[in-house]
Each structure stands twice: as structure tokens, then as C-alpha cells.
């Protein structure tokens, strides 16, 4: 049970501010529930965010919480890198705890770190620990992130994998809260139960879907998703299975390349981006999820909707791959698997009902463990500990 403020501080309502560059659609339920839980504990939560700029704007996946504080932001280029400044300093004045994204490109982080050195703010970082997407990771950015991260008072790690990375940076384990990053899987389960056979038949007609061996891809359309690999595997699958069709949901900087690729492939359907209830029927039309590269929160979509997900090892996956149990709640092809072999694995999976049922059962077990309510529980506990823990001085730290 999370500790409550002592009687000596009962008159003071602590203020916690989370500074987020944008609010992704999948994060809205978490922020709303976190605010409710902290309010019940006598803690005020403020969310400071901005509209997306630069490449972030191409994904079109953000929302604007009505209770949040929206501030202007600007993007600057340093070579191929995008640096972002958020005008949020006045919105965090007087906060008892400021929680920042652990990202080297967020320029306002350096201002807060400087203020912390003079004892003016209590800081926490929230993040992965490092960039898990190896193709886009910057050596300079990772070096900055390492040294920046060690200068805070508390850390919210995405999960145990990220917590281990943070400990490797020299951050004390007792100052890290692993929150088990998640989405609102319960809502996805509810929406799937409310989707009728007539709904699915109508969607098949709208898509012009003729085949019954259907796969789905959901995610950002950018380099780390290995879209070229996916298209090559889909071609191989179509060659082996004439009624194979692929549904792709998402948006991002590579959308133009995708649209060009599917012009000659009418059996690949791209309706654009779909969120929440709107994406559920598309998943229900499929037999498998094909996500060869950079698996992140999509694995929770698969858990919620009981969908066998096939990916490839060592493809720059996010820390959420910690939740994957190969053969139990997903299938992971060996590293360097050629697209043709990946296609063969997908075809065998679609035709093996017994194996699919086993994975679906594993998905049900996983979604009971990884969900937004449990994430809120972990985060609330971390906020309480961060507010009451003594300030962490540099001389108290050990560095790896």
C-alpha cells in the first residue's frame, strides 16, 4: 500500500508535474487514471505537453487532454537530429516533483538539471534507460542520456528490462520504480466482445477483402519497423497462399513509400491510422499479427485481442518485449531469418489451429498481468516514494 503524507504535511497538497513532449493516444487512459488515483491520495497531478513538431507530426497519433496544460514547442535541427524546446518553465514553478522524459533531444531537460544542482527542484526521469531501436540510436545522444539520467532524484523505468539498464548506468536500484508500461487492454477486450459478425462482414466489404488467410500489421511507419522486410515476406506468403491478404494500420514518415509499394499489391489494404474501438474490427478479421521489427506496445494489442504475433529476434524491439514468452504468447523467429522463411512460419501458424489456440490462451494470461491499472498502481507507489525520499546527492551514487 502506498504511504500517505505525514500529519506534519497534511495541510500541504503536493504538486507533481509530468512534462511530456506530446500525449500519444495510447497514453491518455493512463494519465487520466493516474490523475484520479493521485487526487484520491491528496496529490495534485499536472500534465504539461505540446503539439507534435518535426517528424513526430507525421504519425498523427496524439490527443489533447482537456485538463492538461498545453505549451508551445519548437524544433531545431542539429545535423540529422531533431531537438525540441518546450516553453514550460513557468508551468512547473512550485512543483514538489517534476517528472521528465529521459530523452537527450528535449532541451528543457538541461535547464531543469541545472536548477536541480542549485537545489531548486526535485527531478525524476521516466523512460527506457537507453534507445532500444539500434538503427536510430545516436552514440552522442546515448552518452548524454547516461550522464543526464544520473543527475536526478528518482527514476520511472518502463519495466524490469529498463530498470536493469538504469542500474547499469549507476542508478541505485532503490531509487527506480519499474512501472510495466501498458495500455488499456480491458477496453480492447470489451470492444472486441461488442463487435458483431455483421460489423465484420461490413468491414470486409468496405476493404474489398476476399481472402480468409488475413494478417495484420499495426505500428508507426518508420525505418525501425522493417517495412521492406514485411512487404517481401508478404509477397512470399501470397505466392504460397493465393488468398493471403494483409491489413496495415499506422502512419509515419514512411507512409509515402508504403503507399507506393501497395499500388501493385491490391491484396495489401491500408486504411490509415485507427485507434481504440476503431482498430479492433480490423484485428478481428486477421489470423496473425506480422510485426517483424521494433515490437513495442503492439504486443499488448495482441494480448488483449488474443492474436498470435510473429516477430523476429534482435530487431531493435522496445522493452515491452520483456512480456513476450516465445511459444506461449507469441512466436519469435531467429535473428537474421530471411523474409521467405518468416513467410513460411506465418503460413504454418495460420494453418495450425491448435498452436494458435495455445498462444491465445497465453495472451489471456499476459493481459491479466500487463494492463494500465497495474501500471497506475506501480506509478502511484513510485510517486509517493519519490516525494518522501531524501534528496540524492552525487556523492551518494555509485557509477558503473
List keywords for this structure.
single chain, 400 residues, alpha/beta, Rossmann fold, 2 domains, seven-stranded parallel sheet, six-stranded parallel sheet, 17% strand, disordered C terminus
Account of the 3D structure:
By secondary structure, this protein is of the alpha/beta class. It folds into 2 domains: 7-182 and 372-391, Rossmann fold, CATH 3.40.50; 185-369, Glycogen Phosphorylase B (Rossmann fold, 3-Layer(aba) Sandwich), CATH 3.40.50.2000. It has 13 helices and 15 strands. It has helices at 28-40, 108-117, 139-149, 160-168, 185-194, 197-207, 227-240, 255-262, 276-284, 298-304, 339-351, 353-369, 372-388; strands spanning 15-19, 44-49, 69-70, 73-78, 81-86, 97-101, 123-127, 154-157, 176-178, 213-218, 244-249, 268-272, 288-290, 309-312, 331-333. The strands form 3 sheets. A 7-stranded parallel beta sheet has the order 3-2-1-6-7-8-9, sandwiched between helices. A 6-stranded parallel beta sheet has the order 12-11-10-13-14-15, with helices on both faces. Helix 1 packs across helix 13 (372-388) and helix 5 crosses helix 9. The longest helix is centred in the last third of the chain and has 17 residues, at 353-369.
